[in-house]
Amino acid sequence: MPVIRQTRQREAIEWVLRREKRPLTPPEIHELAKQKLPGIGLRTIYRHIKDLCDEGQMVGIDYPGQPLRYEMVGGNHHSHFICRGCNRTLDLQVEVEEVEVTPPKGFNVTGQETIFYGLCPDCNPDA
Ligand SMILES: [Zn+2]
Predict the structure, then answer these.
(1) Which of 3, 12, 79, 88 has the least C-beta neighbours within 10 A?
(2) Closest among 77, 89, 95 to 115, alpha carbons compared
(3) Domains with residue ranges and CATH for the chain
C-alpha cells in the first residue's frame, strides 16, 4: 500500500481521537474516520491502531465489563467517566491531590487511573 495513503488513514484516526477527546472503540473510530476518509475500512482501522499502540502513541483503555477503547497518549492527565446507561466514556478533568501509595515490596507503580460512573444526559431522566 502506498505510504501516502497509509499516512492519510493514520491522520484520520488521530484526527478523530483528538477531536472527540474521549476513548473510542474501533467501530466508533471507524464511523467518525469515514467523515474524513469515506473509503476507510474497519480492518484498516484495526491495523493502524495496532501500529500506533506498538509505537507507544496510543493506549488501550480496558475496563472490566467494557469494550476495549483507545486514546492517544499525551496531553493532560485526565480521568474517565462511564455512563451506567449506555457505556459512553468521556474524559474528565479532575483535580487530583497527591496520593500516597505504598506498593508491596518489589512492586513498581507506574501509573494510576480513576473511573467515575454516572448517567449521561441521554440516560438521565432528570436531566
Ligand atoms: Zn448514557
Answers:
(1) 3
(2) 89
(3) 3-72 (1.10.10.10), 76-127 (3.30.1490)
The SS3 assignment for 27 reads helix
Contact (Cβ atoms closer than 8 angstroms) between residue 80 and residue 59:
no
Write out pLDDT tens, residues 64-119: 888 899 988 875 667 889 999 998 888 888 776 666 788 899 988 766 777 889 99
Distance from the CA of 75 to the center of ligand 1, in angstroms?
25
- The DSSP symbol for 24 reads B
Let me know: does 92 contact 79? Beta carbons within 8 Å.
yes
The whole-number average pLDDT for the span 39-56 is: 93
Q: How far is the CA of 36 from the centre of ligand 1 (A)?
A: 26
